[in-house]
Amino acid sequence: MTRKKKAILPVLTAVCLLLTAPRAAAYNTLPEVDVQARSAILVHAQTDEILFAHNIHIRREPASITKIMTVLLALELGELDEVVTAEEGDFFDIIPEGSTAGIKAGEEMTLRDLLYCAMLPSANEACNIIARHISGSVPAFMETVNTRLADIGCENTQFTNPHGLPDPEHYTTAYDLYLMARECLNNTVFMEIANTEYITLPPTNMTPDGRALTTTNNLITRRRYPDYIYPFARGIKTGSTNAAGHCLLSTAERDGLTLISVVLGAAVDEETNLVRSFTETRSLFEWGFANFTIKRILSRVDKLTSIKVIQGQEQDEVLLVPERSVEALVPKTLNPEEIDRRVTVYEPEGVHAPVSAGDVLGEVRLSYQGHEYGTVPLLADRDVERDTREAIQEGIGDFISQDWIKWAVFSVVGLVALYILFAVALNRRRRARNMRSGNYRGKKRY
Q1: Sign of the C-alpha dihedral, residues 282, 263, 62, 23?
Q2: pTM of this structure
Q3: DSSP class of residue 368?
């Protein structure tokens, strides 16, 4: 197996480690954060590192956070400028106390405007209209939604309606909502809608003055409750029913970091009368930004070890350097020198020349307090030519030192010795015979 091929397995292992389920942080040097909610999660979006986790795989009712998948699917499958007409059947399950944008049967709106109605004031009827428009019916649309949820890895989610009104068969988890949020972050139009504080929609055939919409996400608007505002928040969606409690899925960006937060089943603080889905989300963001940062934990110029070069010309070793630098999300107090660098050399007894700069000769695995940051190949830092004379000498020595050569030489020597002994014995017998016959040259005959 070649040196480069030997590197394939560890590299694939590292990739698998990075692409599997994210890891929950438990750094023993960080201050604790307590979240008053049934479930909560905080994730670093760029690395999928879970920074905080509480009941993240327990099934909960998401309420109107459901609407993020309705809007995402509409963006993926529909045309924003299509005109959609509301029908009587679109209001079949709408309850009076539910969120609404006041859309009427027969009203004509673009799909884009319907998406704003679904996201900002959380209009339930808008979601039914969108679902029927995209798939022909709400049940058909929900089949598409659940297929999409499975595709992105949501193993504990089932949505039975496009708006999130209570249904015992309608559920998800904090972890699955994080997976949905990750998909939404990749859609720029979705994030533009989700991060809109307010908007006035154009007039329709039944609403001549248009519609003024304000988001229900109090982290991003000062129009309702300025005490909730969090300047680094970016969307995404609220949800609230008696059964689900107060829920919020949000993202925030600061100092180059993007965090995703999910808070499910929060209550209203009895002392301050503040809704904890907002205050707990803000606390999670503040804790995350205060305690984590991106640091370089491995540099391309780091010389981690050396390896012996056999038959090298003017060089008897090469240094091993990382294939690339590595940056990772780590606690702000962490000194990169504290990172555990577990070095493995593929041929610890030495590598035979010639060696080329860039040959993969080992790997280093990076970790800290149980957190794995991946595996990086180690490369030779220089070329080393082969010393031909030394190689020939060593080759001869290796040839001679082989067991079968030793046995062959021993056999030859043995045969020569036997031949000499046989010749000596034969000569003696000839001399003795000659002496008996009087032909021995050393005696005279009388």
Answers
A1: positive
A2: 0.79
A3: E
- How far apart CA 288 and CA 299 sit, in angstroms, is 25
Q: Is the pLDDT of residue 225 over 90?
A: no
What is the C-alpha to C-alpha distance for residues 17 and 15, in angstroms, rounded to an integer? 5
Distance CA 343, CA 382 (A): 19
Residues 24-56 have pLDDT tens digits of: 456 777 888 999 999 999 999 999 999 999 999
The number of helices, as runs of H, and strands, as runs of E, in the chain is 11, 17
Q: At 305, which helix (H) or strand (E)?
A: strand 305-310
Mean pLDDT of 207-224: 93
**Using an 8 Å Cβ cutoff, are 246 and 162 in contact?**
no
CATH homologous superfamily for the domain 31-294: DD-peptidase/beta-lactamase superfamily (3.40.710.10)
CATH number for domain 3-18+299-388, candidates 1.10.220.30, 3.30.1440.10, 3.40.1390.30, 2.60.410.10: 2.60.410.10
Which tokens is 412 given? Answer: 């030859």
Cβ count within 10 A of residue 320? 24
Query: Rounded to whole angstroms, how far apart are CA atoms 211 and 121?
Result: 11
Tokens describing residue 276: 């904890």
Structure-block tokens of residue 337: 């020198």
Note the Cα 40 to chain centre separation in Å.
Answer: 20
pLDDT tens column, 103-116? 999 999 999 999 99
Residue 288 phi/psi, 5-degree rounding, is: -65, -50
